[in-house]
Amino acid sequence: LVSARKTKKIITTRTNTPTIIPISFKGNPFFGGATTTGAGLWEVVVVVVCVCTTGWFVSIHKWYHITIPMKRIKKHYKKIWVAISIVAFFVALLMLPFLNRIYPNIYVAGIYLGDKTKDSALEYFSEQYKIPSKLNLVINGQKNELLTSEIVTDIDYKGSIDRAFNYSNSGNLLSDFLTRLNLIFKPINLSASINFNEEELLETLLIISDKAGTKPVYPSLKKINNLVVVNPGKDGVEIDIKKARADIGQALTLEKNDEVQINFRGINSKLTDTETTVFKLTAEKFLGAKIELKSEFDVITLSDATLLSFLTPKGYSDEVILKEILK
To answer: What is the pTM of this model?
Structure first.
C-alpha cells in the first residue's frame, strides 16, 4: 500500500497507506468507470431513477405483449417494491449527503476531517497538523537527535486532503458505496503526505549504523606462495535500514511521534567450516590459470591471483570484475 513521485532527489512518500482496490466496470458510466474525480450527482440520480423504474416495471401486469396473471403479480410485487425501495433509500442515504464532502469517520494523521468540504478541511488540517522539530532515534537505550528540517522538505497539505476526499470518492460508484458502508463500522486513519529528502535520510541512517553497529567482513581469497588462503569472514550487525525508514515515516505521517525505536539486524557473512572447504577447493582450480582480453588497441591479462579476487562463495562479483577491467 505505497506510491512515490520522484523529483530530483526528493520523493513524496506515503507510509502504511490503506488501499481500496476498486471493482472495475470500465466504460460503464453507471458505475463510475468513466470518471476519476468521484461519483457525481448525476450518477446517483441514475441509480435512483433505475431503481424506481424497476419497481414500477415489476408492478405492472403487462410487459409488452406478455400477459402475467394479476393474482401472481399482486401477490409478489409489493414485497419486491418494498425491498427495492429500502435498497434505494440506503444508497441515497450513503451517497447524497456527502457528494462534496469528506466522508465521516476519515482521519488524516489522527486529525478528524469527516463531513468537511475540501476547502474547510484544508484550512483546518493546515492549522492542526504540525510535525515535531526533531526526532529521537533510540538505539540501545541511547537517544540520537535527528532534525526533521534535514530530512523533510515540505508537507503536502493539499495532497493529504485530496487523499482523504478520494478515499470514498474514487469514481467507481459500487466501490464507493461499499467503502462508505465499511466506514460506518471501521473508521480509517490515513497518513499525511510528506516530501522526504530520501538521499539525506539514507545517508544519516548509514552513518548511525556505522557508529552503532559492527561492519561485517565478507569471505575472500588470496594467493600466497602458490597456495589458496581463505578468509572465512566475520558476522556483523547493522541498523535495519528498511524498517527504520518505515518507522520514521509512520512517526511523522501517522502518529506525530517524536521518538522512534531503531532495531538492529544481524548479517551472517561468516562461512562455516564446510563452506570454507568448498570455497577453497573451487578456488584451487584457478591456480595457474589466466585470461587475456584482447581489443584493437590493448590486451588485458588477468592472472590467477586476480581471478581469485573475483570469486565469492556464491559465484563471482560483477562489481569487482568491472572495477578491475576499468583500471
So the answer is: 0.59
